[in-house]
Amino acid sequence: MTRFLVVLTDVRPTDGNRRDERTTPERRRQVVGASNREAADRIAGAFMALGMVRAGRQRVKVLAVGRRPRHPAS
User: Fold this and answer.
1) CA-based angle 18:13:5, to the nearest 5?
2) Buried b (16+ CB within 10 A) or exposed e, 32-56
3) pLDDT tens per residue, range 17-72
């Protein structure tokens, strides 16, 4: 089953280079796990109502982790 993480991060200023989350990820403020996409979207919606997110100083990311098991065709 696919699980989801909802991540609240600080937005870092650009220094003229491209942002690369794999080499220099943004600082995480909060990480919450959710068992399905609907729950993750509701949590993300609550985070998006925060003043720092609305002001553009923080951002919300919804990440899928793991995979759903594949069922054989019947």
Assistant:
1) 80
2) eebeeeeebeebbeebeeeeebeee
3) 777 778 888 899 999 999 999 999 999 999 999 999 999 999 999 999 976 666 66
In the 8-state DSSP scheme, what is residue 43? H
9 belongs to a structural domain: yes
In a domain, 53, yes or no: yes
d(CA 51, CA 36): 26
Residue 48, in any domain of the structure: yes
> Is residue 52 included in any domain, yes or no?
yes
Number of separate domains in the chain: 1
- Token pair for 28: 């995480």
74 has a pLDDT exceeding 60:
no
